[in-house]
Specification:
Helices cover 57% and strands 8% of the residues. The protein is mainly alpha-helical and 200 residues long. Helix 1 packs antiparallel against helix 2.
Length: 200
């Protein structure tokens, strides 16, 4: 059922994801919706992977996008009124950073912080260092999302209104609606430094 309270929360939440995705990916999401036939999913943003590989930058951008729904709720409703709808986003973002910390490939030092345990080949991780590193980078990514939403406040508010009225839009419809609301979409998509072009 399309409950007004739920629609309002979902519009703000998904607008946060969609806007930060657009800025950090340099393109509009394929689809944004604040309704779903899935009883466990109130809304969604359908995007594409940034790259076929992972880098520190691409993972930090992905984590910022995942935390953007929660940051959007914080901006609009206040810190005390953030809903539990961000639970899955936060868990996935944390796991991404934790995997990165444990891999030894992109950690803050050139080491894997692991040793064989009982000769079975199982890895024993330094959990204190992991927790500290993950916490620092969750905060860094969350702050990035928050700054982008604050900096592009007009586009953020316009997107909330558009989703509240239209419920679901694909990329062309989203571009048309944002343009009609007075948002320079091209400028929005180029408002943050692009990811490195390795081939270039």
């Amino acid at each position: 059922k399309r409950n007004p309270q739920t629609l309002a929360i979902t519009a703000v939440h998904e607008a946060g994801h969609a806007l930060v995705y657009a800025i950090l990916q340099g393109k509009l999401p394929k689809k944004v919706s604040i309704t779903s036939s899935d009883a466990y999913t109130l809304g969604f943003v359908e995007g594409e992977r940034m790259t076929d590989y992972a880098s520190y930058d691409s993972i930090l951008r992905d984590v910022a996008i995942r935390l953007a729904g929660k940051k959007a709720e914080q901006l609009v409703f206040g810190a005390d009124s953030i809903t539990t709808g961000s639970e899955h986003d936060t868990q996935v973002a944390t796991r991404k950073l934790l995997d990165l910390a444990r891999s030894g490939t992109l950690f803050f030092q050139d080491l894997a912080l692991e040793s064989k345990y009982k000769g079975e080949g199982d890895l024993l991780f330094d959990t204190d260092l992991e927790k500290e590193w993950v916490s620092v980078h969750m905060e860094k990514a969350g702050n990035l999302a928050l700054v982008l939403l604050e900096t592009q406040n007009l586009a953020f508010r316009a997107l909330i209104r558009i989703l509240g009225e239209r419920l679901s839009l694909d990329a062309p419809a989203l571009e048309t609606a944002l343009t009609a609301a007075g948002i320079d979409v091209a400028a929005l998509l180029h408002s943050h430094p692009a990811a490195v072009d390795y081939h270039k």
